[in-house]
Amino acid sequence: xxxxxxxxxxxxxxxxxxxxxxxxxRIGHPLPLDYRQYLLTVNGGSPEPSMYRGEIVEIYxxxxxxxxxxxxxxLVWEWRTAYLxxxxxxxxxxxxxxxxxxxxxxxxINGEIYFYSHEEDxxxxxxxxxxxxxxxxxxx
Length: 140
Prior knowledge:
The chain contains five helices and seven strands. The protein is of the alpha+beta class.
């Protein structure tokens, strides 16, 4: 599993079960198990390696959002402030900053991962799961 340098200022403390359960209640959906496990062990930051090479797109994963408080830039803040129609906001969770302004979204319905291009204002399904994305990260 990609990690962040524990001594860097990027590093976050792992999320707790209580924090995750509270967030799940707030968004109205349980998180997929692989993503929950990631939050419990790594909890975001700048992944190393960071280059995703999939069948549809190659992207630089700059930052995976951490489960932090509301007022901090993190998963909760990204979810609260996501510029999405409410219909999408109920089922898609922004989980990572990629390519300097685009996002990766996690489907809260089936765990699939979507790439959102802000320039094209479009979503593309890229993987079946969060762990699939992590498994395809490689050095630049």
